[in-house]
Amino acid sequence: MSKTKLCLWLLLLSAGCAWAGTTGTIKGTVRDAATKAPISGAIVTIAGAPLPAAVTDSEGRFVIAGVPPGTYTLEASMVGYTNAKSENELVIQDLETEVNFLLTAEAKPEPTVRIVAPLIRSQQSPTMYVVSRREEQMVRGWPDQLYQYTGIILGQPGAVPDAAGMPHVRGARQDHLAYMVDNILISEPNTGEFGTNLVTVGLDRLNLYTGGFRAEYGSALAGIANGVIRTGSSIRGSRIETSGGSLKYRGTIFELGNVTPRGLDWYVSANLWKSNLEPEVSGSSSIPAEIDAIAKLVQPIGERDKISFLYNQGYARYNAFEGPFFSAPDEPPIPGRHTVDWNLGSNMPITTADSTDYLKQYYGIASLTWSRSLSASSVLSAQIYKYNARRTIHALSDARNSYQHRSARQTGFRIDYNRELPTGTSFKSGFWIMPSNNLQALVNASGPNKFRIRYRNVDTIDYALYMQSTLRPNANLTADVGLRWDGRSYRRKPGTLPAKDTAPFASVPNV
Predict the structure, then answer these.
(1) Of the candidates 346, 353, 284, which has an alpha carbon nearest to the alpha carbon of residue 320?
(2) Contact 142, 155 (CB under 8 A)
(3) Residue 504: CB partners within 8 Å, gap ≥ 6?
(4) Are residues 378 and 487 in the same domain?
(5) In a domain, 189, yes or no
């Protein structure tokens, strides 16, 4: 069984282009300070960044593609002119940064040109909100949403929570919002939902698209949450953050990063926190442990090649409110504790020690990315990654009567090509494939020793092929044209469910 969908985007907006999920673009002009005439052949470089220099064309225009998010200093030089420098230029993934230089032919001390970012990003065509790691501190919500992707998204316009605290964008369903980290899709294939406890510790910036996203983004109908992990060049040192105020909440975050003399850009971080908040506030009686670890390495190879490695892993346990829950009159209250659990290997109930109902979550991400600057305006990149996530709810108490297991083991490969022109026209194309080993099991107790099972053991292979182009006939008009094909194939695996008439099962529908 397979299904495909074909999407065509045509946007006529007064904005510019953005091309990559993890990088941005710098473009602008170099002109004579006296005559305002364009200077051809001027060299524009990014200080301290292993990226090719750009050379201005006959109209004084330049473009540098594939720039990682961060703050940079740009320098423009030309024989017979004094060098010019522009500092504190902010680059955001998927957006353009415009820098214009004026060079003087007179010999004078090197001037510093400071460009102030406009309040409106004229180069942004989709409806998008950008949240940096510093801005995240200003939108903190509930204690259990601290450093959570759901928390940072709910602080943006157009996102509202449902009863479970998950964000919905523009009134769409939960599974209509796709989550990405460093170009890695971290949504569950079978449900399309955010199926992990991934935190925002180590996040450099998050772009939230709430409409009009381009053809390079798929697997979503309402929005895209695209995050990029920071690098060592953005910290160049260490940082320790501790949170507390009482014994009911304690957390520690450690970050360390730098750039070696050989150009290795490295970053590591760790997050550890626990809480014992009131159920009315957090929904959980305690969170005994949440642990996350991140490592990101970026190594330039020569002048044009770059290798990036990302490792991100985390674990969390949430103890549910153990009651007691009030029952019918003249009946004893029901505790939220269980002595029966489920063995997923044999799909049979097992006896366990008396314990509180709880939830366990785990995720692991590993990726290797190679990129090559074919020129200052074109980049070719290839990425291979693995993403594992599982979530298990152990709650077969009389109060909740539920056991749930959801897991996905994904392996992905993608290749992307981008070409930027100083005129504002751009072209991008790419291919993506992702096999995934999926399993979902839901068990409900319908009575003493009677269980109802819903079992979904179906693997998937996702494919995507896209092309998109941004046309800019003049300064006031931009046309974004994109074509994308998405496909999926399914492979159902044999289950291990017992027959329907086998005790202690009341009914065993195999979905």
Answers:
(1) 284
(2) no
(3) 349, 449, 450, 451
(4) yes
(5) yes
* Whole-structure pTM value: 0.79
For residues 87 and 191, state if they share a domain.
no
User: Which of the listed residues 91, 113, 135 is the one where a domain comes to its end?
Assistant: 113
**139 and 99: one domain?**
no
State whether 99 and 136 are in the same domain.
no
Backbone angles phi, psi at 228, to 5 degrees: -125, 130
Bridge partners (DSSP) listed for residue 367:
310, 385
Q: Give the phi and the psi of residue 394 in degrees, each rounded to 5.
A: -100, 95
The kind and range of the H/E element at 374 are strand 358-375
pLDDT digit of tens for each residue in the chain (511 aa)?
444 443 433 333 333 333 346 888 999 999 999 889 999 889 999 988 878 889 898 889 999 988 988 889 999 998 888 899 999 898 988 888 899 999 998 655 555 555 555 555 555 666 788 888 777 766 655 555 667 888 888 888 888 888 777 888 888 888 888 888 998 988 888 777 776 777 888 889 888 888 778 888 877 788 888 899 999 998 889 999 988 766 677 889 999 999 999 999 999 999 998 887 666 555 556 778 789 999 999 999 998 999 999 999 999 888 888 878 777 777 788 888 999 898 887 778 889 999 989 999 999 999 999 999 998 889 999 999 999 999 999 999 888 889 999 999 999 999 999 998 888 788 999 999 999 999 888 898 766 667 888 888 889 999 999 999 888 777 777 778 899 999 999 988 776 555 444 444 444 443 3
Enumerate residues 6+ apart whose C-beta is below 8 A from 345.
Answer: 496
Torsion sign, CA atoms 355, 150, 91, 27: positive
Residue 2 covered by a domain: no
Residue 411 counted as domain residue: yes
Residue 5 lies in a domain: no
Q: Are residues 457 and 346 in the same domain?
A: yes
From CA 42, how far away is CA 349, in angstroms rounded? 73
91: which 2 tokens? Answer: 């680059």
Residues sharing a CB contact under 8 Å with residue 34, sequence separation 6 or more, in sequence order: 104, 105
Structural tokens at position 440: 């979902």
Strand 96-103 to 24-32 pairing: parallel
Residue 35 maps to which CATH number?
2.60.40.1120
Residues 225 and 288 both lie in one domain: yes
Decide which of 63, 91, 113 is a domain's last residue.
113
- Residues 94, 169, single domain; the answer is no
**Cα–Cα distance measured from residue 209 to residue 224, given in angstroms and rounded to the nearest whole number:** 5
Question: 367 and 465 in one domain?
Answer: yes
> How many domains does the chain fold into?
2
Give the domain extent around 473: 127-507
